[in-house]
Amino acid sequence: MTAFTFNEIGRIHSPYKEKFAVPRQPGLVEDGGGELHLLPPYNQAEAVRGLEAFSHLWVMFIFHQTMEGGWRPTVRPPRLGGNARVGVFATRSTFRPNPLGMSLVELKGIRCQGKEVILQLGSLDLVDGTPVVDIKPYLPFAESQPLAVAGFAQEAPEAEMPVTFSPRAESQLAENLARYPHLRRFITQVLGQDPRPAYRKGEELERDYAVHLLEFNVKWRVIADQNQVISLDPN
Question: What angle do CA 57, 58, 59 make, to 5 degrees?
Fold first, then answer.
């Protein structure tokens, strides 16, 4: 069996500071963009020459936070309620024989400043600090297949839960309005996807959760069929 070694070419800077609550696909959270910072020796303007002519990129990355868990021949996709098992190769599970992932993201711009080469990206499904091993331009004529069949994930998931904000959270939103004008929309779209583990969905008891987003520790409470943001305190 042949072994391969990959070099990290860059690292993701993302508003998602932990894997909990990261959207399951890019494009689901409007304000969840980030950056890809290229690392030496790949941080050369020549390496991205011509890339600005493409609107979207395939980002190949490492599932660095779950790779220690190894792989599993079958997994339980959240889109199937977390109960039905299918083969790992029929899913995009992080628990794979090789911890490689790929994500299609919008390229919003390129900044070359001295020794820095930074790709500005649109809506991400990647945790902060994700190591990237390659990028490739997206080719619509070859890779857009309108008649393709996608098994149990033919359509994008709809936001599942309404999101409300407590008086304290409303005050904190107002305090951060100048720096984060779209913070309410960002949190609403993240929590609206109901990031809880699939096996917890449907629970009727009140339960509190927390996640690090941007520079905030966002705490919310699940009450019946809605999420109420309790607070968003600085980390």
Answer: 105
